[in-house]
Structures are given as structure tokens and as C-alpha cells.
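Figure 2 data, in text form.
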Amino acid sequence: MNLLQIFNLFSGVLLASIAIVLIRKKSFDRYVRPLLFLILVNLSGIIAVGFETTANPVFWKAGYVLLFFYLSFLPAAWYMLTCRWGLDDAEYGRRSFFPRRIILAVSTAIFIFLMLSHEADLIIVGGRWYLDLSDRYFLFSIFLVICVTMGLYALETCYRSSLGLSRERIKRSFLPLLAYGIALLAVATVSWLYHQISDWMLTITFLLSALVFVPAARHYILFHPASDGIILTRKGVYSSIVVVLVGIYFLIIGTVGEFLVKYNLDDGLFFSVVILALLVMTFMILVLSQTIRSRFKALLPATTRLPGKGVYAAEWKEFTEEISVILDLETIYKRSDLLLRRLIKVDHSLFVIKESESSSNFTLYCGDGIDRGIPGEQLEKLCDWLYRFGHPVEAATLKEKVSAETGELANLEKLIPFDLFLLVPFVARQSNLGFWGIGARSGGRPLNSDEIGFIEAAANPVSLTVLGAQMTGELVTSREFESFHRVSSFVLHDLKNSVGMLSMLLQNAETNMGNPEFQKEALLTIGKAVDRQKKIIARLTDQKADDKLSVKKCDLANLIRKTLERVRLDSVKSVELQFELEDGYAVFVNVEKMASVFDNLVINAMEAMPDGGTIRIFPAQEQPPGMVAVVFADSGKGMDSEFISTRLFKPFSSTKAYGLGIGMYQSREIIKAHQGRIEVTSAVGEGSEITIFLPGEK
């Protein structure tokens, strides 16, 4: 087995493996069929060469059929792959099927002709084999040249229309496909001039196809063109470097061929020229297409220079720094609109911004101060299409290509006072924020490619700023609700304590209503409850005033006695009170706030002893300098250490069935505001001791 046979065997095994992987991964998906068809055609050529070069005549007849199939359908398979490559599902559906049908019909006709005439054959001369196409089979060469050129044009158009993520996805497979197309062009040239193809040239073509189809298969496995494909833009089909270069290539080949015939020169020189011309053409297609377009474009005004360059570099830097700290969407719009008016002379622009993730509606900003809310169902599809497209698109192109979104664009045009020329998607951190609608330049002149590139560059910082403004607004709103919820929770807790006092008063009224002394105390308790609720209402209506902590010197024992009177502890027969705190402990506190702390501690102690027990209030054994410490102890059910460390002072966490879970949290916050502290000692079934340290003196 010689080296060429090894290469053919390797190519066949690799192509068969790729086909098997594609079929298993994509279940013979219709997007993969053109690639599988081209793989099948190349496999038939490899097998045909293997059959025809064996000494066993049993395989020769089958080899001829496979060889004719390869020669006939190679152009069609190449074109069918390239005209489908990388395109979005919607774009593919709009392309004409007529050229493909014509090419398939011609391929079928060539196959039938070959089967009947046997005009192609593999001949072996001096141990080497050649694919002989006969004098009349030059039509194959012409047909292959046409199909290869059309395929290269389709690849170029697709690549020109791709930007950003779409271009990154097709780049790895685009360049190998381009190289394979140029190799086919070389085969077509040689067959056209010499009517035969050498063994090494055909083997290299087989090997190149196997290597090229690896990244092509990877593209189809990883990315689905229906959702990740490319939408063709009008600027992508205005001109073709490929068509021009192919024409120049054949002009050079024809000239060199005539020169060689006229002067009877060596054929080796001709092959050298062919290879050199192909290399130059490949280099120009891959590298110089963008450069050529930029070299011959019309000179643009200074206002179209890209960000960071030219006379507007300073203004661009100022714009990006200024807009990065703006948190109001209306201001972001005005600053962006001013940038377009100054640098590109755009007459008008607008923002269409999705309100939030929880809302599907949009808000339109166009500088007239009118709040235009747009229902989401009118623009959802349009914004989703722009998000997938990923870069600016002309409104005319959008109307031509996306009929489903045309109605949505018409709805948008009814809501705004001017026409749009360009739509730029706002995408930040993979979030679909809406789009930037931009009109034509002053005087009605459309935007050119550099101006569109400038706008696309500006859309990136604008998108990030819009996202930041939305997130900041949602955060501010969330904190406002959180603040309101926190205040309302504290208010509800104070109301709960007042209701508790009135409830105990009502229970005692059933047996003591005829007692004049009880009646007097009951009226006093009701009056205090009313005063307390008035203060609660005042806290809601004047939250700023409530934030100011005014303290005064008070007697601690007297403050706690007033709490005991408010909660009517002496009327609870099942609870024994041991009040051991003597007068003379002065503290510096806000009387109202500290009263709510003492009320909460006493009520909590009572609720911890549903079957009765003892409440003991006494001074701590150790009194730190500048502080006064008092202990509230009960003989209730107690708490475990885990609850004390993780949940006791956590808001909205309670062990009581109807508790709000904010009493101890609120008490600790009030004590901390007084520069004091609170300590808790407890055990399950053994009661609790809560020690409060407050600024004061004995």
C-alpha cells in the first residue's frame, strides 16, 4: 500500500466517522443534510478510486457507478451546502429553491450521460492512475467552476452579514470551507485545460474534504442555525470580491495557457502559475476583502470617525464617563440623542426600553416629555428578533425580511412622531433591554457604514447604563418597600401590645366592673392606650422626626413600674411578681422608646408562662462603669442556645403561634441606639434571664 492509498483510506474512515456522528447527534436534521450529502459524494469518490485501482475486476463495475456519481453530484453537493451554511431558519426559507433545482437537474443529466457513454475513466500509466475526462467532458469543468464560484459567493455573503457572536461561531468552519472551495477550483482548472486529474491532486482533494468537514460538523453539532444563524443584510450582497477574483484568476490562467502554447514552454511552469494564482486569490479573499472595501469607500466627513480616534476622541471619552453615572433613563436618552446630533447630525432618535423583568410592557423616550407606555404584545417579537440578530439593522431591511415583525414596526411608527432608519438592539449582560431607534441624517441622507459602526459602538455603554439605571431603580423601590414594611411591622407590634393590655382589662372587667376603683383604673388604662396609638400614628406620618433620639435622665425603677401598671400585671392571678429594683438608678433614655422595650419584655415573660409562674426584676450583680444593668427573669419554658444565637433577634422569627417575631429585634435596636446592650441567658424548661445595660449611674 503506497502513500496515496493510505491517505485515501484515512480520508474515507474520517468521512464515514463524521457522517455517523452527525446522524447520531442530529438525527438526520434537515440542516445537516447538505453536509451529509457532500460527505456521501466524497466517500463515493474515495471508494470508486479504491475499486478501480484494484486488480480484481469484480469491483470495477461498481467502481464506475460510484465514480460517475462523484463527478456528477460534486458541484451540486458543494453548492447546496454553501447556500445553506450559517443562515437563520427564516432567512433560509426566503431563499429561492430554483438554482438548487436547476443544478440538481444538470447533475442528474450528467450522471445519466456518463452511465450511458462512459466518457470518464480511471487509467493507470506507469504505476500511477489518472482520472481521464475525455475531450467532450469539458462541460464538467465549466459546470464545476460555476458551482464553486456560486458557493464561494454564498460563503462570502454569509460572512459579510455576520457580526459579533454569529461571526465567531462560523469562523472556524468558514475558513476551511473556503480553502476546500479553492481546491475544487484548482481541480476544475486542471480538468478544463488537460481533461484529466492526477492521482495526487484528487487524493489531496479527498484528504482536504475530510479535514474540512470536521469543523463543519462541529458547527452543526454545537449551534442550531434555526436560532443562532445569520440574517443577510443588504450591504452583504452589494458586491462580491469572490466573483471579481475568480474572473481575474481565469483571465490569468487563460493568458498563461496561450503564452505556453505559443512559445511551446514546459507544463511545469503553468502549474507553478496556477498554484501561485490560487494562493494570491486565497490571500486576497481572506485578508484584503475588508481592506479593499475600506480603501475605495467615499471619503467621509470628520463627524463619522470612530470612538477613541480623531477630533471627537475627547468628546467620546467625556460621553462615556458622564453616561456611566447617570441613573435616570430620560437623562440617558437626552445625553445619547445629543451625542448623535453633534457627531453624526442625526435629526431624531428614540429609546424603547422594556420596563422590568416582571413586566412585558415598554416605555418610549423621544424627548417630548410624553409618557408613552407600549403594551408588550406589540413589540415583544420585534425586540426578541433584534436581540437574536445582535447588531444594527436598517428598518427597510427589517421590513423586507421579517414579515411577522413588520406589523409590530408599523405599530411603533404610529406611536412616534417620525420615521426610523436604523434599529439598534440594547443588550447588556445577556439581557434584552429594548432598542435604540435612529432616524436619517439631516437632509434625509441615510447613514453610511462608518456612522452605523459608530452608533453600534455607542450602544454598548448606553446599554450598560440603561441596565444599571433599571437595577438601581428596582433596588431603590425594593428598599423603600423594605423600609415601609419594617416600620409597619414595628407599628403592628406596638399595636399588638396595646391590644394585649386592653384584652387583659376586658377579662378583669367581667368580675370587677362594679368596683369604682377598677372603673377608674380601666379608664386610665384606656386613655393610655389611646395616647399610645396616637403616637404610633404620628410615627407613620412623621418618620423623619421619629428618627431623632431625644434622651433625658429618668429613674429606671419608676419607668419599669409604669410598664407594670400599663400591662396590669397585678391583675394576673397566676403570675407572681418579684420587683427587687430600688429607686436611685438613673438612666439616660428616650422614655417612649424604652417604655416599649420594657412592655415587650414583661409581655414576653407572661406569654412564656401560660400556666403561671414568677417574674423577677432585679439589678444585676455587676454594674459596669457608666452603665446601669437590670435583669428581667421568668420561670417560663425557656429557649435553647441555638434559638438564642440564630433566631431570637432575627426579624419575623417567632416561637409564638400569633407572634410577629420583631419584638426582641426592635428592643435590641432601641437599646443599641441608646449605646447599650442586651444579654440573654436561658435553658429549655428552666426559664430565661434578660439583662439590659443602659447608660446611667447609681
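Caption note: Confidence is low (pLDDT under 50) at residues 288-311.
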